[in-house]
Structures are given as structure tokens and as C-alpha cells.
Amino acid sequence: MVEFDVIGGGFCHCEVEKELLKNTTYTLGDLLNLCDKYPDHPFRFVGSTLTVGDLHSWRGSYDQPALEPSQDVKTGLQIGQLLREQMTTIHHGWKGGEYRYRESDRFFLANRGSASEFMVIDYRLTNSEVVLITKIIPW
Question: What pTM did the predictor assign?
Fold first, then answer.
């Protein structure tokens, strides 16, 4: 059992494979592939009812992408469509600069204006939903 961080506070324990302990983080491409693999499944973050929301510039480093946690229930198909659309637009940094994000970019999970350091490191398929496993990974 390993302890994982829950968006909004707290932690939970999950069984994981040893590979996960290397702090591997998902890229936007990894998330898109997961959405394509489970288009009809709702997605949520471990220990919460929150799911993937809009893509924006992360406050911690403006050139880095972040996904805003959302209250809305979304399937893999909906998340994939949203991300693909938002990856084609220019995103503005908090103190200037214009950025485009690519599938190879790692991403943070943070509200707009936040430098929260949550990242997706794995997923579990449970009860017909995809649970994204999150951990705080300091920048």
C-alpha cells in the first residue's frame, strides 16, 4: 500500500506496482491515450468527485500546462475532445507570454492562478470508471 495525495486535501492508500514509485508522471498524450482507450467511462481523481477540466497556463511556471479540476462528470470521449480542442489554441501566461501545449508535455492539476503541484501518475479502472491517481510532485 502506498499513500497518494487527494486534490482538495488529504490522502488515500492504493495498491501499486513498484514501477509507480519512480514518480512517473503523465503527459497530455498519456491522458489522451487513456481517454481514447475508455471513451465511455467517466473519469475522476482519486479520493474525490472532481474530474479533468480546462487546460491553462500553470502559475508555478507559465510555460507549463495545467488542467483545472472540474465538478462536472465527464467521459473519456468528452475529456479527449476538450483537450484536443484546447491544445490547438494559444494560452497566455500569468505575467505574459504565449504558449502552446503538446502531447509530450507533463501537466499539473491546479485551479487557474494556483501553483498547486498535483500530477497524475497512474490510473485504476473500478466500477466502470477511470480513477486517476494523483500525487504532489514538487517542481
Answer: 0.88
List phi, psi (to 5°) of 111: -65, 155
DSSP string, 103-126: TT-B-EE--TT----EEEEEEEEE
Q: Could you identify the residue written with the cell 495498491? A: 15
| 3 vs 38: CA distance, rounded Å | 25
Q: Over the stretch 96-112, which tens digit does the pLDDT of each residue have?
A: 899 999 999 999 999 99
DSSP state of 137: -
| 3 SS3 class | strand
Q: Which of these, 61, 56, 78, lies nearest to 115 by C-alpha position? A: 61
User: Quick check: 125 and 94 in contact, CB under 8 A?
Assistant: no
- Comparing CA positions, the residue from 88, 97, 103 lying closest to residue 33 is 103
Tell me if 43 sits within 8 A of 130, measured CB to CB: yes
Full DSSP string of 57-95: E-TTSTTSEEEEEESS-EEHHHHHHHHHHHTTS-EE-BT
Are the C-beta atoms of residues 103 and 27 closer than 8 Å to each other? Answer: yes
